[in-house]
C-alpha cells in the first residue's frame, strides 16, 4: 500500500508483516508489525495503529527459527486448548516475520 498526494481517505486492516517508512530526505526505516490498522486521512496523512511494532534489525533469523520450532511443538498438541490456540497465532506471526528477516 502506498499513499500519494490527494489519496482517497480509507481504513485498511494490516496483517502481520513489514512496514517501510520512506522519509522525505530519501532514507527509509523498516518495522515489523504484528497487525493493526492503517488510516489515510484527508491531505494524504497516514496513521498506523498497531499493537506491536519493532525495528526489523532487532530480529535474528536463528532466534525466529528457534521460536517457530517451540511454537510448533505446542501447536501440535503439547498443551491446553488455549495454549494450542495461542501457539497457532504465534506461528502465523513468526512465519510472517521469518519471510522478511534475512
UniProtKB/TrEMBL annotation:
It comes from the Eukaryota. Residues 59-99 form the F1F0-ATP synthase subunit delta C-terminal domain. One of its GO terms (molecular function) is proton-transporting ATP synthase activity, rotational mechanism. One of its GO terms (cellular component) is mitochondrial inner membrane. It is found in: Mitochondrion inner membrane. Residues 1-43 form the ATP synthase F1 complex delta/epsilon subunit N-terminal domain. Keywords: ATP synthesis, CF(1), Hydrogen ion transport, Ion transport, Membrane, Mitochondrion, Mitochondrion inner membrane, Transit peptide, Transport. InterPro entries: ATP_synth_F1_dsu/esu (IPR001469), ATP_synth_F1_dsu/esu_N (IPR020546), ATPD_C_fung (IPR048938), ATPsynth_dsu/esu_N (IPR036771). SUPFAM superfamilies: Epsilon subunit of F1F0-ATP synthase N-terminal domain (SSF51344). Pfam families: ATP-synt_DE_N, ATPD_C_fung. Gene3D superfamilies: 6.10.140.880, F0F1 ATP synthase delta/epsilon subunit, N-terminal (2.60.15.10). Its main location: mitochondrion. Belongs to the ATPase epsilon chain family. This is ATP synthase subunit delta, mitochondrial. The lineage of its organism: Eukaryota, Fungi, Dikarya, Ascomycota, Pezizomycotina.
Amino acid at each position: 500500500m502506498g499513499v500519494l498526494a490527494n489519496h482517497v481517505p480509507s481504513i485498511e486492516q494490516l496483517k502481520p508483516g513489514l512496514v517501510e517508512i520512506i522519509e522525505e530526505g530519501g532514507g527509509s526505516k523498516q518495522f515489523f508489525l504484528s497487525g493493526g490498522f492503517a488510516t489515510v486521512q484527508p491531505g494524504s496523512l497516514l496513521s498506523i495503529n498497531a499493537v506491536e511494532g519493532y525495528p526489523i534489525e532487532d530480529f535474528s533469523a536463528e532466534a525466529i527459527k528457534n521460536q517457530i520450532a517451540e511454537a510448533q511443538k505446542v501447536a501440535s498438541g503439547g498443551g491446553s486448548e488455549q495454549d494450542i490456540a495461542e501457539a497457532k497465532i504465534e506461528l502465523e506471526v513468526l512465519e510472517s516475520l521469518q519471510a522478511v528477516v534475512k
